[in-house]
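Duplicate of #3305? Posting structure anyway:
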């Protein structure tokens, strides 16, 4: 009857429709996925990441198979490059290649650990200041402004000198209580104060960056929804607000690491950083400067590793900044 004809007519119209799905579903892309794709397209950032990987591999893996960096051999001082000493030896006959790699361990760890300490303090301090607002925010920011008015390097020198006296007592206690090797314990306790001296005073600028981000984020709809659901302020702050400031924080951190490495080099150059016979890139540059006219490789080789690391970290930070730019990711 009529229903059969209508069904046949409807079936004919459906069969004449073009092949393929009627509605095409476009999958969404997260910010982190877009950032990764943009990062891969940045040749300078990728090359910098490769260079950093090679330097870290040399300093933390290859160094374990090198000679003792503190072994003195006055008979073999200022030796040229050879299969036994790839970069030659220094004024005390110590292997320069081993000292550069072990010095890189100290410099890189100082940059990474000091950055981690400063980031942890800066995120918490800046987030609380921006989220609380009012008098609390004003008081906390005045404290930051006061500390920023004091030269950073002067504060670090004072704190480093104070902690260095304490580290000697800690070294003696570790050796007597745990029977550790005195040289290893001294090397460890010597660089730990440097970590905290830089990290405890390097969070000031980051706290202001985080505060500015939090001031804008706390007015958004998802924060208002969390407030309406009755969540506590601490839960809203650390589970909803802080994760949304990690992007700018990561970018700033990559640009902070080379700054801390440079501060360590300055302190070591002034004789306030890593103590002899241990080495860092700053110590090696200081020692090489004493023989600039006669043994220039003592200055150029550690300076080359130091410069490559700083340039790579800066290029990597610029690449991360461009990759995590929300406005650019929408283009």
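Output from current build:
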């Amino acid at each position: 009857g009529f229903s059969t004809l209508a069904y046949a007519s409807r079936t004919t119209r459906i069969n004449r429709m073009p092949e393929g799905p009627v509605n095409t579903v476009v999958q969404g892309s997260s910010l982190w996925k877009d950032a990764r794709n943009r990062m891969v397209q940045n040749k300078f950032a990728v090359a910098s990441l490769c260079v950093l990987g090679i330097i870290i591999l040399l300093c933390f893996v290859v160094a374990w198979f090198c000679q003792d960096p503190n072994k003195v051999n006055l008979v073999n001082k200022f030796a040229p490059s050879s299969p036994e000493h790839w970069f030659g030896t220094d004024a005390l006959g110590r292997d320069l290649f081993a000292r550069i790699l072990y010095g890189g361990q100290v410099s890189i760890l100082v940059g990474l650990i000091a950055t981690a300490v400063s980031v942890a303090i800066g995120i918490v301090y800046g987030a609380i200041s921006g989220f609380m607002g009012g008098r609390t925010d004003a008081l906390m920011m005045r404290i930051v402004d006061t500390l920023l008015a004091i030269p950073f390097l002067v504060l670090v020198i004072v704190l480093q000198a104070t902690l260095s006296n304490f580290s000697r007592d800690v070294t003696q206690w570790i050796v007597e209580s745990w029977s550790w090797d005195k040289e290893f314990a001294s090397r460890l306790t010597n660089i730990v104060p440097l970590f905290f001296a830089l990290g405890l005073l390097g969070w000031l600028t980051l706290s202001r960056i985080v505060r500015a981000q939090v001031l804008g984020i706390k007015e958004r709809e998802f924060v208002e929804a969390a407030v309406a659901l009755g969540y506590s302020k601490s839960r809203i702050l650390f589970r909803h607000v802080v994760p949304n400031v990690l992007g700018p924080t990561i970018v700033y951190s990559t640009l902070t690491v080379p700054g801390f490495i440079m501060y360590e080099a300055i302190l070591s150059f002034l004789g306030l950083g890593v103590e002899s016979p241990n080495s860092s890139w700053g110590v090696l540059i200081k020692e090489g400067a004493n023989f600039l006219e006669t043994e220039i490789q003592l200055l150029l080789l550690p300076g080359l590793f130091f410069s490559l690391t700083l340039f790579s970290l800066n290029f990597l930070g610029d690449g991360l900044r461009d990759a995590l730019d929300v406005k650019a990711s929408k283009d």
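Confirmed duplicate; merging threads. Confidence is low (pLDDT under 50) at residues 1-18. Residues 28 and 318 are 26 Å apart (CA to CA).
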